[in-house]
Specification:
single chain
Length: 355
């Protein structure tokens, strides 16, 4: 988002950067990363005309999520404490735990559906805003996924509490909200922030990011598949790839269990969630069939495009093809009222007889 960043940098250097911004755009396009970049620019000891220097101590602290005056508020589960002060303490601990995870894995996933910005989180923000800057400079507050400001009990208390801060923000504070759609925020909040819209990224930008940041590195075919799945969203490309990788790992684990004998086969079947989402279970069966197909490819003298269980490498192609047909039958049955544990147990026995 170089153009947006240049405009923000120009506004900063000319003294026209608004005190409160709302960064919007499709999921996974980098809204919170742009917010962190702006926080880095605001705290940088020697910014250039278009970028923070990236090397000074404040810059390094911001990017390490350790700057004492940069506060990133993320959605968290509702605190369990009954006392209001203890709720704020619990919210602070929960936010700190999320940020600690993001330090270790900066390619983070979206928060779960039960997490929100409740009144305790906003009070935590208000407390930090009322305090003196630790470094003597600006305090920056990033409210990620701000559309989650309405807590679970469907009360606008959290949003209204934030509104009070937006109406009279401390002079040394800057607020950056991010949201997929501005319309999901209260009109009173929207009226007090300046919108910054991020569009979808070009395929070249997505490709470059995935090629340099995703580990283990992707081969050419996998990279292009990720780019197509991303649809201009790096986050979508990362998530789709991670989910596909997990499904492939599960498929290989099932086939390893099939080859290991009756005990491991039954144990793996019993670990299957009995009434998991049909789409998730059929995706798992598709991955099993795909892995068998890659083994058949290797049996026919071609190099498999992804890793397959070693026990399949000596199988005859015909046996592998029959096994794929059996998985297809199980997939059809999965759409009916069939317990996935039972279906997987029977499938495991059938595959063991074939392989």
């Amino acid at each position: 988002h170089l153009d947006v960043r240049r405009r923000l940098a120009h506004a900063f250097h000319s003294g026209r950067l608004p005190q409160a911004l709302l960064v919007t755009g499709p999921p996974g396009v980098g809204k919170q990363r742009v917010a962190l970049w702006l926080a880095q620019l605001l705290e940088c000891a020697a910014p250039t005309e278009t970028e923070p220097c990236g090397t000074c101590i404040p810059c390094r602290q911001v990017m390490a999520l350790q700057h004492p005056d940069v506060h990133w508020l993320v959605p968290i589960p509702r605190p369990k404490a009954g006392d209001a002060d203890k709720q704020v303490e619990e919210a602070g601990e929960a936010v700190a735990a999320v940020l600690d995870e993001r330090r270790g894995q900066p390619l983070y996933a979206a928060p779960d559906g039960m997490s929100s910005h409740g009144i305790a989180s906003v009070r935590l923000l208000q407390r930090a805003a009322a305090m003196t800057s630790v470094t003597g400079g600006l305090k920056v507050f990033i409210v990620g996924d701000a559309e989650r400001l309405v807590p679970q009990e469907s009360s606008p208390d959290a949003a209204n509490a934030l509104l009070k801060l937006l109406e009279e923000p401390p002079a040394d504070s800057r607020l950056i909200l991010t949201a997929v759609d501005a319309q999901r925020l209260l009109p009173t909040i929207r009226s007090r922030v300046v919108p910054v819209r991020l569009g979808r990224l070009g395929d070249d930008d997505v490709r470059q990011f995935l090629a340099t940041q995703v580990r283990p590195a992707l081969d050419a075919d996998a990279l292009e598949a990720r780019v197509r799945a991303a649809g201009g969203s790096i986050g979508a490309g990362i998530t789709a790839g991670e989910e596909a990788h997990k499904v492939q790992q599960s498929a290989r684990a099932i086939l390893d269990a099939v080859l290991a004998g009756p005990g491991p086969r039954l144990e793996r079947a019993l670990r299957q969630q009995p009434w998991s989402a049909r789409g998730d279970f059929t995706a798992l069966l598709d991955a099993v069939a795909d892995t068998l197909g890659e083994a058949a490819r290797g049996a026919l003298g071609h190099k498999p495009r992804r890793a397959v269980p070693g026990g399949l490498l000596g199988c005859e192609p015909e046996a592998l093809f029959r096994a794929m047909d059996r998985v297809g039958e199980a997939r059809d049955a999965a759409h009916g009222n069939v317990n996935p544990q039972l279906l997987l147990a029977v499938l495991g026995e059938d595959l063991a007889a074939l392989l």
